[in-house]
Design goal:
single chain; mainly alpha; 71% helix; globular
């Protein structure tokens, strides 16, 4: 019994350490995302994505980088883009970019796992988009896609509203007095959608770190096998573990750190990180938005894309000698607390987060501003956000 209590304490300490090390980065990333969501016109973005050429894919990717890092919210926005006329490839590129190329994810990876994983995630995000575009061009299901555009969605789910302020130009929107309020509302909405995923991710990572011996991970990921077998097997296995754990978005980074410490290959860990878009609740969300056939197509294309991208990144980083040493275990560093830069950054950005929350509480969504205009954003777009 005493040993069990000690294990639980170790798991909770690890979870708390991961939350502490990444707290300020999350506030920074969500604040930037909230600002961009408040001043970048969604309608203009939709009009620009009607074709599937390189320009449209690049624009969709940039829009994804500036959007929500919550995979559910990103799926909701992608659904709106696609059903409003955006081509399939730019729509899916937006989805990959919004969950792989966002600022806060890279910084969290840097803090918990080191710069190679940060670079692997960001460069891999570009590779994901390229591989996906090629696969969709080769397999484009015209009938399924058109049926998905017309699919009658099931009712229910969380409502995710677009919150863009009024203004003819970007400068005018930045100067709009309502921008501060919209940023606070978007920031609070982002946290409301993500905190459960983050908490689950930290707890799952902490408990697996404490209760699952490294030997189990070493056996599962074939650490003693030849690289010719280990690398592809790990790339195939990584997304399946992500699907089974149900952890999505930034919440899967702590478990990725545990998998790496346990002996998974570089490509296997990246494949796991890429796979937050095919966890079971999200697959059910695709089904609700587009129907079973389109959901199955997205799942198949995404899985193949993630495996190929992970293999490409593993081979590239291995060839360049950039794969970090497995002997470096970040777990001891994660649970180290002190009056260091992390403390002061958490203090500063914690104060920023508290201020934005306070502003949002004073100006809740759905109320009217001083001019009598409803704060429902441009066109009052509502994106159904399925919690799964």
């Amino acid at each position: 019994m005493q040993e069990l209590v000690a294990k639980i304490e170790q798991a909770l300490l690890m979870a708390a350490g991961m939350a502490w090390q990444t707290g300020w980065t999350l506030v920074l990333g969500f604040a930037i995302s909230a600002l961009l969501q408040s001043v970048v016109s969604t309608d203009a973005m939709k009009r620009a994505l009607g074709r599937d050429g390189p320009k449209e894919v690049a624009l969709a990717s940039l829009a994804g980088m500036a959007s929500s890092s919550c995979s559910y919210a990103s799926a909701a926005i992608m659904r709106t883009l696609f059903k409003k006329g955006a081509a399939l490839i730019p729509s899916l590129a937006f989805l990959f970019a919004s969950t792989n190329l966002v600022l806060e994810l890279g910084i969290v990876l840097y803090l918990l796992m080191g710069w190679p994983f940060m670079v692997g995630e960001w460069v891999g995000g570009v590779v994901l988009i390229i591989v996906m575009a090629v696969l969709v061009r080769l397999t484009y299901p015209a009938r399924i896609a058109e049926g998905a555009r017309r699919h009658e969605e099931e009712a229910g789910g969380h409502q995710h509203m677009s919150m863009t302020v009024a203004g003819e130009t970007l400068g005018a929107r930045l100067r709009n007095p309502q921008t501060r309020i919209r940023v606070a509302q978007n920031f609070t909405m982002e946290w409301s959608m993500l905190w459960k995923d983050l908490a689950i991710g930290f707890l799952v990572g902490g408990f697996l770190s404490a209760f699952v011996p490294d030997a189990v991970w070493k056996s599962l990921f074939l650490t003693d096998a030849s690289p010719w077998l280990k690398v592809p097997a790990n790339a195939l296995l990584g997304p399946l573990i992500a699907v089974a754990t149900f952890v999505c978005s930034i919440g899967n980074v702590p478990l990725a750190a545990v998998l790496w410490a346990g002996g998974a290959s570089f490509g296997g860990v990246l494949a796991f990180l890429y796979a937050d878009l095919i966890v079971l609740p999200l697959l059910d969300t695709y089904r609700r938005y587009f129907g079973w056939r389109m959901a199955a197509y997205i799942a198949a294309v995404f899985y193949a894309t993630m495996v190929v991208a992970a293999l490409v990144m593993d081979l590239a980083f291995t060839g360049l000698g950039l794969v970090p040493d497995h002997g470096i275990d970040m777990r001891a560093q994660i649970t180290r607390f002190g009056l260091n830069y992390t403390f002061w950054l958490n203090l500063v950005f914690g104060a920023l987060g508290a201020y934005l929350w306070w502003v949002s509480r004073r100006h809740p969504m759905g109320h009217h501003d001083q001019g009598g205009h409803a704060r429902h954003g441009e066109g009052a777009h509502r994106h159904a956000h399925q919690e799964g």
